[in-house]
Amino acid sequence: MRKNVFLLLTIIVSIFISCDDDDGPYGDYLVARPILQDAISFKAEAIDIVDPTPIVSSGKIYTYQNYIFINDVNLGFHVINNQNPSSPESIAFIKLEGNYDISIKDKKLYADSYGDLVIFDISDITNIKLISRIENAIYNNEVWTTSIEYPQADFYEYDDIDFDTDIVIGWEVTTERRSVAEYESQFNCDICSFDNALENFGGSPQPSTGQGGSLARFKIIDDYLYVVDYSDINIFDISNLEEPKVLDDVQVAWDIETIYNQGDILFIGGSQGMYIYDIKNPEKPEFISEFRHGTACDPVVVDGNYAYVTLKGGGFCGNTESGLYVIDISNLKNPELKVIYPMDGPNGLGIKDDTLFICDGQAGLKVYDKSDAPNITLINTFENIIAYDVIPLASSLLMIGDRFLYQYEYVDNDIRLLSTFEL
């Protein structure tokens, strides 16, 4: 009897071993599955107006009348009362998840949130109200745009996701036995399965329109709002401020980052180049030309016959050496590089008359005389600060750094620090 039992156990073990051998060796792996919530209820919870709160990650800067709006990357934006530039005051935080940029006209604030266009009424700055939200107006909502961090895991299971309706609000990670071959097969490709999954988600008269910095993706020109996503110019007719019309978008390239205009000419900054469009017909931007350069982060500002483009290399920005490109655009159909000035790690830039301001990252804020463009001359450097982007105003300069707002006043041909405000 014992021999029979032993024989039976031997056969069973042999069967399992042979199955294991057929599929190759096995191991214990971490498997992550997303915890989902429907997008409609998630977005309803993603908007709130609360008391001032410390900033987490400084993003874009925007000014309107006596107020400054500073993006907290992917979380919303802070509202700063700047009636006294020597002593600005934080007055509110507008929680708007999935937000990176804003633009304002006639006390209506337009913002992005997970690819939607969200509109607020800010006529009473102490009682900001949500007017409407246009779903997928900028780009199709993608489940992977939430701020939830990915857990460490060996496998990511996405089979239960409805890409049209679901948002990831968390992850569940379990240990499961999988074949080693299955695990290794994820890396036997040019673009692995995890990357593929990510790609599939993806007192005096006040001005009526606000002003953003050179890193802006939003731009209001007359009755139209232009928003660049990663490949297109999205166009909105905002002649009715509360009910904008979504017009046909225009595909530019797969790498665009910023938008700037000089009159009815748009200059689109991208990681591969600068793209120039005519908006004489504001609903249908028409391609004029492009200026190509190596891969780098690329904001652009324009003054007269010259475009000034900062290229930031390294990291995710690309391998191009950092520098300032001065480009002759007197012939819009044939932009011509005139000179390159080396930089440490430039971000945004701005122009006030004959003065060029460049945020050179950890090298600080650099001030140049450009009266002899394309030749420029360094006249001042503000060191020991991290400079991100600037907005040159009529009587002062705003600059956003790492969790700090700096304001400078113009003095003769130079500038002087007016205030430093910790966000």
UniProtKB/TrEMBL annotation:
PROSITE patterns to which the protein is assigned, alphabetical: PROKAR_LIPOPROTEIN (PS51257)
Protein name: Uncharacterized conserved protein
Natural source organism: Maribacter orientalis
